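User: Okay, second chain of the day. Same drill as before: sequence in, structure tokens out.
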Amino acid sequence: MKSKTALVCSALVVLSLFAVLSMSGCDNRSEVKSDAVVCRLAYTSKGYYAPQFLASQKGWLAADGVIVEDVKLGMSAGIAAAEALVSGSADVAVMGDVPALIALAGPRDCVLVAAYGGGENMHSIVVGDKSGVAEPADLAGKRLGVQFGSSTHGAVYLYLEHHGIDPATVQLVNLSQKDLIEALLSGSIDAFAASEPTPMLAQEKVPGARQLADLSGLGNDYPSLIVASREFADAHPEAVRAIVAGTRRAVDWINADPDAAAAETTLVTGVPASLEAAMFRKMEWRVRLDEQVTRSLNMTGEFLHRIGKLKEVPDVEGRSRPEFLQPQVGQGRRES
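Assistant: Same drill. Structure tokens below.
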């Protein structure tokens, strides 16, 4: 009996010690979490934002004292990320040039951190077989689908002006990018403008669909951009640098092995890997914040303001923060 009692007592002591150690461990984890900076990163599930979601999946956004929480916005356009940032639902977000201009001119004070991708031929106009559109001038009187507030939306206005077409003569139809192909297939629109891979997908899925033009040669390289809340960036520069460092690693990987990067990207976007790889090769992937980026944004902002599509042109140079592209002292780059 004594032996049995001693055994029970020993077991209770062990369990008590285990419980104490477990609670101590929980307290340590809570302490680490409470001390860490949480950075909410907003992005949509499109290949243009692959550097961020690939970096997140691979742990490349990790940094001491920083926890990056993904704000996943599904198959939407960059304007959704701009809205998340301006509304306070995110601290950092990635988007195209027009959403970035909207965010930088918005009520929440935001700053431009970096560009990481782009390419002047990333947007295209695709027309239906029975649209009757053979040249740019034929778009007058036609229904052209495009997602309002997107980078493509701004590019369409540049394209129409370049070809001397009054935008008022073209019926622009506001559609999310995921609905454009179905709308063209059903005949509810005559044409659409979108970024890749939607134009390539449409030509595979819609009989007779063809590309009328890409929206290149208009003086804009349509940069993909990282934008942050100024308050967050000032308070937590180490978190913003972690986003930039992770993005740079993913960009390096895309450049080195676009097929491997596309194979993982398709798991997020649902787009065939071959089309994602083609899109990766079509674009320029490089982390930067240079004169070319600011010049492109200023040109687009001034144009959209002139035609009444942007209320205010933000001070792009004044809101640019190139210091975030430089690692902190003692912070080296890790190899992929």
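The chain has two domains: 36-119+220-325, 123-214.

User: Thanks, on to the next one.
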